[in-house]
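User: Teach me something about this protein's shape.
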Amino acid sequence: MLSNRKTTFILAIVALLALACGIGAPVVTTTVPSDPHSVETLVAGTMQALTAAAPPATGTPAPQNIPVSFQNVSFVIPEGLASGASGELVPAVTEETGAPWDVGPEHIRFSFSGYDDSLGKFSGLEIRVYPVLDETSTSWMGNSLTKLRAVLASPSAPVAPKDMPSVPYFNAAQMIAAQTKVLTFQSGTGVRAITQYGQAVGPISNNGTFYLFVGLTSDGQHYVVAVLPIGADFLPNSYDPAQPAPPNAIPFPDYTSADPAEFEAYFQAVTDQFNAADPTAFTPSLPALDALVQSITVNP
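Assistant: First, the predicted structure itself:
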């Protein structure tokens, strides 16, 4: 039999150990040692059991990607790119009900919330999925599909602005096409580029540049367009060439004295600067935007 003094000592130690593990600590069952008169053995056994019952330390949380789904289209937003997205059905627009650049079939449009626009400030921000109705027409869809198929047929060839499939609802033309790359998404293939549109020549700036992806599902039934703002620290933040620009920005020619060749040289120099930049140097990064696009699934 243990003496009252030893029993009191053991109970005190066990109580203190339980308090050290916190309120609500798991109940610990210990095996009585072969020498019941050894206080040290009892304490050591209790410590060992409490240590084994302690919850494991938590590591770094897994990235919180955000799945998005609407009707037959789904994708995943990489962590940090945006806080969410919502889908809607956009009614068809005909030549009688809208402007030529708005004409198109009923389609799905996704808008984003909490998007990382800390550099790229372009106003467009969306993914659209159109049904392919008539590839032979002279509409924007027919022209864009022709260009897209040509790009996909020669994926390693350079893509000039005139060869890049277009955003259907922009009443403007592409001025540059940089960082072009053929990408495969879950339901098909397409091409991405960093671009800027304009109705006249002007500086390439963080207010106007965006990531453009144009793709076609493998069954040829859906046309996918993604317009996502993107920026770079070597670009000015304004369309106004008189505003301050980063020291490594390509100077924009003087509107009043430059001939067309100077503007073409400017656009080529900016394109070269984009192409020489690391894909992670943009905001958001190209890998994050590519991951978003590559996750797109369009079910029949």
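Now, about its shape. Residues 66-298 form one domain. The chain has two domains: 4-53, 66-298. If you'd like, I can walk through any region in more detail.
User: That's plenty for now, thanks!
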